[in-house]
Design a protein that fits this description.
Number of strands: 8
Order of helices and strands: EHHEHHEHHEHEHHEHHEHEH
Protein name: (Fe-S)-binding protein
Distance between the termini: 44 Å
Shape: globular
Pfam families: CCG
InterPro entries: Cys_rich_dom
Length: 255
């Protein structure tokens, strides 16, 4: 399959290894990965903050970059960005776009997937040949859980990883408190939510807390670092890309 890779803003600027791991994983599974160089932000942060007309050029650009019929699917290591493309783009196109934009959005929406969705639902694979000999707990992010409804797909992928010690995260479906600008505008509430999440993560004794969104991992990882928990955060794609011949080497976490 010919798969378009959307990097996302956080992937591009702060977490490129999650994006690279997505490409490495898909190529290892025998697929052609293409990276349209003109891609930009999906516009999610604008819409979530109440600016719905402003992201029209971004929505149009996404449709143009990935609308090529030769691209059979589009994948991104982000449930929130996939949720934006699949739900918000249509709203923006209907309210502020023209017929061409509405058509383009409908085309790319139908073939856009978060990583675990693509692997399980489209490529029909759960065992991707990964190897990760560490204790891991999984945090299901809000957009993937509630908007995309990926369910247990990430867990099914993790359970098939060779040598992994996967432990359940208590109150896993509780928000970590990030929510983009929510963490800035409602800092006290966000911090309280994060404190609860950190207690649950550290209580598992996990070496790694993983998730499908770099934004949530950034929030949780920052908190773990500040309390010197000794637990690292790592994107799901990086675990799935790790193999016996090319294992992911964990960096030392703050203690």
């Amino acid at each position: 399959m010919r798969i378009g890779l959307f990097a996302t803003c956080l992937g591009d600027t702060l977490y490129p290894d999650a994006v690279k791991s997505t490409a490495v994983l898909l190529a290892r599974l025998g697929h052609e990965v293409v990276f349209p160089p003109g891609q930009t932000c999906c516009g999610q942060m604008h819409v979530n903050t109440g600016y719905q007309r402003e992201p029209v050029p971004l929505v149009r650009n996404y449709a143009e970059q990935f609308g090529d019929a030769s691209i059979e699917a589009v994948v991104m290591p982000s449930g929130s960005c996939a949720g934006s493309v699949r739900h918000q783009h249509e709203i923006i196109a209907e309210r502020y776009g023209d017929a061409a934009l509405r058509s383009g959005v409908a085309t790319v929406k139908a073939k856009t997937y978060e990583l675990s969705e693509l692997l399980v639902d489209v490529l029909d694979v759960t065992d991707v040949g990964a190897y990760f000999p560490h204790r891991v707990t999984y945090h299901p992010t809000c957009h993937s859980l509630r908007m995309l409804r990926v369910g247990d797909k990430p867990l099914r992928l993790l359970r098939a990883v060779d040598a992994i010690d996967l432990v359940e995260l208590p109150e896993a479906d509780a928000c970590c408190g990030f929510g983009g600008t929510f963490a800035l505008k409602n800092a006290d509430t966000s911090s309280a939510m994060l404190k609860d999440k950190l207690a649950h993560v550290t209580g598992t004794g996990a070496d790694v807390c993983t998730a499908g969104d770099s934004s949530c991992l950034m929030h949780i990882g920052g908190g773990l670092s500040r309390i010197k928990a000794g637990t690292r955060t790592l994107h799901l794609a990086q675990i799935l890309a790790s193999t016996r011949t090319a294992p992911h080497v964990l960096t030392e976490a703050a203690r």
